[in-house]
């Protein structure tokens, strides 16, 4: 990981790294918080009453498409449920799509309870149940693939209503293209409901949808958050105070006077020396004194989340609550020895605290989410992954830094990112008020925090781009000219068109032209290598290659054509395919291949055979990832039946990363399994390999829902 480069607006004094912590925190509160804290409590029980924005959205989606923007916890799911119920009553079918498997699984359970388990199915790649049910929950990639298949067969998508949850993923650099494809390809007859908490240009996106789908798209925005939020600052002495107080000359929120005085001190006191984490047990004690629990602490890294658990030993717990947690943990982990022996189990059971991040087993993350939603945890230490759509609410959300590692470097948080995190504060029906807590530290810019909390949602921009899988699948049902017409319907092209009109219709070369040029570049390479003929139609090879909807379809397709992937040993095939999957750098201590092993010989042959084709791709400017031997060795040993602890130790990977590697390998193998006609032997081995890979603890997530 690169060195952190974020510099606060008011950098700490040069000697700050060696400053002593403030000492034991003594719970205290600024006098101005008295009236705010008096509002803390649980709302009186009563019948559910829909908010005006919910009623309006339900009416609008009956007339056309609808984009709903409302804060997290405002009740967007209620709109989806009611709209789906209306479709079911009319004898129709509905599709709910989300970006996250965890969120999809949660909605699968919720919709099953609402409509009956027999009427709801799920499709997430690694989970496929009740697929003929009238309600399908799944990931957006699966929905996009179904649209590809429907266009290929010349039929309409078998649904009467589509919900795209977390619609701001349209602007995600890595996956936004999938959202945009769904919106472009979805037949206009199918009403579309988009749900998001953070879209700054909702009206522009609605106008774009109306222009490409030929039906109105309403924008419905929640007037207010159902559970109001207050922002606080924790002084290193243990005193809570308002983070802001009034507005500055430019209309931006102004730091509360005492917070400003702290932020501008030459040598302010610290909660912990240098870059160390603060005493979380003491912070939790302060929050408990003012009834501000449960709390989610957002930390910058997985390692910090795990280390935070070791700083909670001083928490005082209720023996009765501890016993409840122990019993519930026993129930949730009955089906999994790996969960029963999880290294964080003691902290969860004894102290009521847990970590939640992408480096953990998915099954353990589900346990943590269950304990939190059932009110059995006091605090959760999480990375930003928990903010993205998982139903994981708390009374207070605390953050210690205003920057975030974006996969390449540390950069300041955006308004959308911080709104996703703070959206978890304040539980509808459980809280009258929620809280956001800024905790000072070396990477907390208090002025920036105040600005971000008050900032409007960020603008969502098009991320559409061309790749070989897209080109192959569009050519199944479109001519090259028709594909270029589709690309001209992108959000990016629409935005440029708006700009052109504002500039008196002067021509602007923009995304539409660039996309068309990039499409022609991909098309030429496919024609050169026999996947597409001179007339722009897919050849026999192009048709089966279009079913490889994976990250590197052309390289794998070439491996199949060359016969180098024609292996009958499922474990060997799994290892070879894993070498295409891994993107991240692997620890130098990770498992390596025995130089005399069958896997090593197979991978060397694979590499040598594909090298000329890969070089041609690179010469044409197409990205080609190098084959990775360590993932191949790791997946191979797992497929051959080695125990999880041994494979995990040899891999030198975090458990969650290893599970993701295996699941992604299995997903690639599923696509190869579908090629039973042109490659029967390899397809059969791929199917057997999937079964070998998906065993405990990789495939036990779903048994923990009791």
Write a brief caption for the model:
With 706 residues, the chain is an alpha/beta fold. It has four domains: 1-40 and 227-300 and 383-456, P-loop containing nucleotide triphosphate hydrolases (Rossmann fold), CATH 3.40.50; 52-221, Rossmann fold (3-Layer(aba) Sandwich), CATH 3.40.50; 306-352 and 359-376, no CATH class; 468-704, Sec63 N-terminal domain-like fold. The strands form four sheets. Strands 1-11-10-20-17-14-16-15 form an eight-stranded mixed sheet, with helices on both faces. An eight-stranded mixed sheet has the order 5-4-6-3-7-8-2-9, sandwiched between helices. The protein has a two-stranded antiparallel ribbon with strand order 12-13.
Q: What topology emerges from the helices and strands here?
A:
Layout: E1 28-29, H1 34-37, H2 52-61, E2 65-69, H3 76-89, E3 94-98, H4 101-115, E4 120-123, E5 128-129, E6 135-139, H5 140-153, E7 162-164, H6 176-185, E8 192-196, H7 202-213, E9 217-221, E10 229-234, E11 239-242, E12 244-247, E13 253-255, H8 257-263, H9 280-289, E14 295-298, H10 302-309, H11 319-332, H12 337-340, H13 345-351, E15 353-356, H14 362-373, E16 379-382, E17 396-399, E18 403-405, E19 410-412, H15 415-422, E20 434-438, H16 446-454, H17 468-474, H18 480-487, H19 491-502, H20 511-528, H21 540-545, H22 553-562, H23 570-581, H24 598-619, H25 629-639, H26 644-651, H27 655-673, H28 680-693
Helix pairs in contact: 2-3, 5-6, 11-13, 18-20, 22-24, 23-24, 23-25, 23-27, 23-28, 25-26, 27-28
